[in-house]
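Notes taken during the Thursday session

The instructor put the following on the board and asked us to keep it in front of us for the whole hour. The protein is Cell division coordinator CpoB. We were told not to look anything up and to reason only from what is written here. First, the residues (260 in total):
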Amino acid sequence: MKSRIPGSLALLAIGSLASGCASFGSNEPSPEQLRLNALEQRAERVDRRLENLNLVQVAEAVDGVEAKMRELRGEVERLSYELEASKRRERQLYLDIDKRLQRLEQSGVGALAGSASPDGTAQVSAAEVASDPEIEKAYVTAFDLLKAGKFDAAIRSFQSFRSKYPNSVYADNAQYWLGEAYYVKQEYGPANEAFVSMIQRYPDSPKVPDALLKSAYIDYEQGNFGEARATLQQVLEQHPNASAASLARQRLDRMDREGR
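Then, after some discussion, the predicted structure tokens were revealed:
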């Protein structure tokens, strides 16, 4: 028995070594290799998530920039439209001024005389204007400022003229152009006050249809479409032969198209 035990132990040792050698030469990964592979796979998943997250953030940032660009383009278009509309109003004002100035120059100062002021006193006659050039000079000075686009200075000059010469033949003109100076500056409150005051103080003035028309325009600009329509109808009914009547009809047609 004693001689067989060492032999058995030798055989067992040889078997273990053979088993270990067989395991070492196998293609199966070791536990360490498996853990390493698992870590690499987790790292790859994390990288992909980070990459996807960055792409989402970039996409959101691009969307935000594009939305802001669309908003800015809309604002630019709105401002461009308002600027062009303002330019059209100014051009129309200048054309109107030129036409009126031409008629004034062709007809002479005498065409403006002959009516009475609201308080019953006689207005300054053409002869009196000719003999007192200070009145005409004051009016022309204010009018020239208006033509030159110096609206603030024109407003001050027309206000001064109105205070100094309330009963002159130019008084109704000065009051009307005061309103126009405010109107072209889009200061609609004082503009409308000037036009309404002109209508009330000089009801027989040839400027009344124009003052009514501009008052209606102001109501339109301020969104008071009912008042604007009523005043435009008043121009058509009370002054059908005035040049303002044609413009009143055009604005009413426009309001009909706009559903206002």
